Amino acid sequence: MRPENLRFFTFTIFTVLVLQVDSTQPPFSCDSSNPSTKTFPFCKTTLPISQRATDLVARLTLEEKISQLVNSAQPIPRLGIPGYQWWSEALHGVAYAGPGIRFNGTIKRATSFPQVILSAASFDANQWYRISQAIGKEARALYNAGQATGMTFWAPNINIFRDPRWGRGQETPGEDPLMTGKYGVSYVRGLQGDSFRGGEINGPLQASACCKHFTAYDLENWNGTSRYVFDAYVTAQDLADTYQPPFKSCVEEGRASGIMCAYNRVNGIPNCADSNFLSQTARAQWGFDGYIASDCDAVSIIHDAQGYAKTPEDAVVAVLKAGMDVNCGSYLQKHTRAAVDQKKLSVSEIDRALHNLFSVRMRLGLFNGNPTGQQFGNIGPDQVCSQENQMLALDAARNGIVLLKNSAGLLPLPKSKTMSLAVIGPNANSVQTLLGNYAGPPCKLVTPLQALQSYIEHTIPYPGCDSVQCSSASIDGAVNVAKGADHVVLIMGLDDTQEKEGLDRRDLVLPGKQQELIISVAKAAKNPVVLVLLSGGPIDVSFAKNDENIGSILWAGYPGEAGAIALAEIIFGDHNPGGRLPVTWYPQEFTKVPMTDMRMRPQPSTGNPGRTYRFYEGEKVFEFGYGLSYSDYSYAFASVAQNQLNVKDSSNQQSENSETPGCKLVSDIGEEQCEHIKFKVTVSVKNEGQMAGKHPVLLFARHAKPGKGRPVKKLVGFQTVKLGAGERTEIEYELSPCEHLSSANEDGVMVMEEGSQILLVGDKEHPVTIIV
Ligand SMILES: *[C@@H]1O[C@H](CO)[C@@H](O)[C@H](O)[C@H]1NC(C)=O
Ligand SMILES: *[C@@H]1O[C@H](CO)[C@@H](O)[C@H](O)[C@H]1NC(C)=O
Fold first, then answer.
1. Position 676 confidence tier, pLDDT thresholds 50, 70, 90
2. Helix axes 514-524 and 475-483, enclosed angle (nearest 10)
3. What domain of life does the native source organism fall in (predicted)?
4. What ligand 2 atom has the least distance to the C-alpha of 593?
5. 274-290 pLDDT per residue, tens
6. What is the set of domains in the chain, with CATH numbers?
């Protein structure tokens, strides 16, 4: 027996003894009560994470290694390592979906913040950060209470809301790449615990965030094409300035510890098998140092549905070689061994993945023994559904809800003069609609009907439709109720029977007989009515915009556990609405564009009118950034540090491969020079109204000369101000021309173009000239 084998032998005996004493898996790795394991180098917290991970991986047998490549990672009792569940969800609060979290112990609920699309409408990055910080704390409290078998959360969803029909658009912060990137950064920093150094390379993580779905994923199932087989044809130009920027920010600035590769293919290659995206772009170019998970069953489909891989083993080889680390599903557990035996895969590819996986688990503190007394170990159940978190959920809804129409100042309704209120519509008393998808059990929940009842005692509820689908409506009944009330609030819109994961919409108009019901009720009512829309995606409500019987329209997204309270406060004037739309609201006619057409830029030959406010030039129901308030705000450019930006550098030659005259590749200008030419823009804002309010101020830029695939305009900065009636303030934006005034050329390279650009805030413009 060689010494090596001898060691193995003693080990085996020892393991057997341990198992006899205690057959259950250990609760924590590196537990000090387990003398056989705590001496391993991978347990030594004084060693660098990378060294600890290397030590651990080297101790595993091939079977053990393979057992770690799937979301339900098996325990390794001989090394004192418990099982680990990679899959948990926390999109807008710790959620049910994902087997890593159980609400069956001390903690039975979690704060349910508004669905992301509504939080986005506040344009308040600080608020986004505070929300995910709260989610991260609640997640850690669940772990400490023994109700989590993992701390890796598969959020945020930072795909661009490219098409208004997308069922998962509600999960995203909208259609703008800069804003989506900023949302991703805020979410990741808050959840991972930026203040706990969760953004440092190998720094400790409160919880782990995962930027998904990488990349160009934004179609569920449309006209017979499902996300599992969809091959998204994406141009280099669109990839560079639409699809990739949020992921770049999420990794570079957010320092996310996870990425999820998407189901779909991009230009023929399945995302999870694309080494150009996973290894060259994310890891090498952006410096990503976390783990990459597949979407659930996204590996099996590479063989089973897409036929991209000839055999299951080929699929396994393709994803591991591309740089994926863990498979949601069981495909890698089933087929990796055969891939190794067939010599298609070397064990070093597996080790590479395991190193990433165990590094993240170690950063989460899960190899430091009992967490009590450790950095995140004292976050208790009292941190879940705390007053503070519930207030934050309410605030997020208040700041997100968008006032779309308010003719003749119908809103706010007078509290004292409204003696009776009819509350009509299928969403008036629905609990499920308020939460949106990927929700958890809310701390407490108030429906719109209940919230309105707390203002007006004499409230007459009437659903009017059999369901949100509204294939059958009781229009006469609704009309009678409306006739008898001083005011009418209609609570209509969508829910998860219309839009959700796996389900895109076919139409943009309201489902079934909803529109007919609204028009009839509005016509019969004593006063113009208030129309409230609950939905993730935009709805073509042109009819309501133009109907004088409909005085006001509010969009409230899916506003979360406290959203109905915020809605009632706005309706009765206890809160001044300030949200602005994070997506373009298109007319129904837009649905003639195939959802499968990924092009952002208009293409006359196919009839594609372009997508999102950056490229779409057709009719809009409401535009990106639109939103009224009970106050008016006025803007002025107070100062712009430089009107002429000289990007020229004495040593810098015109690049050889830059063929457009007067056009300089940003990559040639260099980071340092970009730092150099940052400049400040100061905008003054005044609340011209009678009511204090919170107001997001959006700064856009556009080329003086449109065309050549340039965006119509693009968001370059946003900030939120709180202003009392008549109050004025100044906001400073720092612009980096390399980031904000550049655009993607057809090769997918960001370039600076010589000439004039215009800065825009509200109806005010300010020119800047770029000299290259
Ligand atoms: C909660 O559910 C998990 C998974 O089903 C189970 O293992 C655990 O024992 C349950 N805990 C309680 C307290 O019921
Ligand atoms: C839907 O698919 C059918 C069959 O492939 C095709 O004929 C039709 O044009 C598609 N619809 C749209 C709106 O593209």
1. confident
2. 30
3. Eukaryota
4. 13
5. 999 999 999 999 999 99
6. 6-52+66-79+86-383 (3.20.20.300), 396-615 (3.40.50.1700), 633-771 (2.60.40.10)
pLDDT class of 669 with cuts at 50, 70, 90: confident
CA neighbor of 737 nearest in space, from 651, 677, 648, 662: 677
Terminal C-alpha separation, the chain: 74
| Closest C-alpha residue for ligand 1 atom 13 | 105
DSSP 264-302: SEETTEEGGG-HIIIIIIIIIIT---SEEEEPTTTTHHH
Catalytic residue flag (residue 295): yes
Which stretch of 192-206, 369-383, 720-734 has the lowest confidence by average pLDDT? 192-206
For the chain, the average pLDDT equals: 93
Tally Cβ neighbours within 10 Å of residue 10: 10
Residue 185: C-alpha distances to residues 109, 192, 247 (Å):
26, 11, 9
Surface-to-core class of residue 266, CB atoms within 10 Å of its CB (0-12 exposed, 13-18 middle, 19+ buried)? buried
- Which ligand gives the minimal distance to the CA of 507? 2
Q: How far is CA 463 from the centre of its chain?
A: 32
Gap between the Cα atoms of 143 and 148, Å rounded:
5
Nearest CA to ligand 2 atom 12: 594
Tell me the mean pLDDT in the region 62-88: 97
Rounded to whole angstroms, how far apart are CA atoms 135 and 119?
14
pLDDT above 90 as % of the chain? 86
Taking alpha carbons only, the member of 300, 276, 136 closest to residue 208 is 136
Instruction: Read off φ and ψ for residue 589, nearest 5 degrees.
Output: -55, -25
Q: How far is the CA of 53 from the centre of ligand 2 (A)?
A: 51
pLDDT value of position 648: 62
pLDDT tens string 7-52: 333 333 333 333 333 445 678 999 888 888 878 999 999 999 999 9
Separation of CA 103 and ligand 1 centre (Å): 9
Centre of ligand 1 to C-alpha 104, Å, is: 6
Question: Is ligand 1 within 6 A of the CB of residue 104?
Answer: yes
596 lines ligand 2 (CB under 6 A): no
CB contact burial 498-521 (16+ within 10 A = b; e otherwise): bbbbebbbeebbbbbbbbebbbbb
> Which of 72, 101, 102 most suits a substitution to test ligand 1, by most atoms within 8 Å of the C-beta?
102
Measure the CA dihedral 48/53/56/60, to 10°: -160
CA geometry: angle 132, 138, 144, nearest 5 deg? 140
- The pLDDT score that the predictor gives to residue 656 is 44
Interval 462-508: pLDDT, tens: 999 999 999 999 999 999 999 999 999 999 999 999 999 999 999 99
Q: Which atom of ligand 2 is nearest to the CA of 223?
A: 1
Q: Are strands 421-424 and 550-555 parallel, antiparallel or unpaired?
A: unpaired
Residue 548 is classified by DSSP as T
| pLDDT at position 771 | 84
197 C-alpha vs ligand 1 centroid, how far in Å? 32
| Contact indicator for 25, 78 with CB cutoff of 8 Å | no
In contact, 591 and 165? CB cutoff 8 Å: yes
Alpha-carbon separation of residue 128 from 265, 362, 734 (angstroms)? 31, 27, 20
pLDDT of residue 406 exceeding 90: yes
The model's pTM is 0.95
Under a CB-based contact definition with an 8 Å cutoff, are residues 595 and 219 in contact? yes
At residue 1, the pLDDT reads: 36
CA–CA distance, 434 with 474 (Å, rounded to integer): 23
CB 594 less than 6 A from any atom of ligand 2: yes
Q: Please check the confidence at residue 599 and state whether its pLDDT lies above 80.
A: yes
Convert 674-702 to b/e letters by CB count within 10 Å (16 or more is b).
beebbbebebbbbbebeebbbbbbbbbbb
DSSP 753: E
Q: What is the 3-state secondary structure (H, E, C) of 11-69?
A: HHHHHHHHHHHCCCCCCCCCCCCCCCCCCCHHHCCCCCHHHHHHHHHHCCCHHHHHCCC
